[in-house]
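Entry type: protein chain
Record version: 2
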Amino acid sequence: MIAVPPEVFLYEMEELAMKFVKKLLAVVLAGTMVLTLLTSCGISKTKIEDYIKSMPSVTLESMLVSGSDSHVTLKPVKNNDAALLASKAKDWLAASENADKTAKEYMDWYDAYDSFREPFVDDNKAEYVGISFIKLPSEKFDSQNAWIAYNLMSKERVMSISNWDADDGSEGTVSVTTEKIGDNTYAFAVIRTPGRDPDAGEDGGSIHL
């Protein structure tokens, strides 16, 4: 029987240990990459806010049918506006027939308009205030946070609840949150911008209802 020198035995053990460490690191790295990919595909309030912030402009409808649209930029803020909107609309959205409806449809239904507006609006302050929400897709897909942001800010979804139009070209703020209601998840937004008097014209104009 040939005796193996101690230094050769130690060398072989070191080689085996290094191979094991390399395999272990490869497994950990692969797991980290998968986790990163899964996370990047998820809904992120921060990413939704970033997409809104990067929009060249957001179009906001005049409160008057004959009024001109305003184009603004928005900066995300941390306040309670969006969470308050979610709490107010939660029970209504929980009904299956309302699950896919918009903030405009919600305000058409709401039978206590003034009491709804009170926490959000000061009519003596020249400020546009708009609300929006959207049901999020149940299936994940590429660029879903961008899709959410652009649809949440679409003119067809944003409902003005103030007596002022947005000042064209101004910079405003947006509060965003997401909340699960029943089996669905929603994104909510409250927009605030400097306000201007609506251009009513000679006949006073017709108000969007």
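Comment: The two ends are 98 Å apart (CA to CA).
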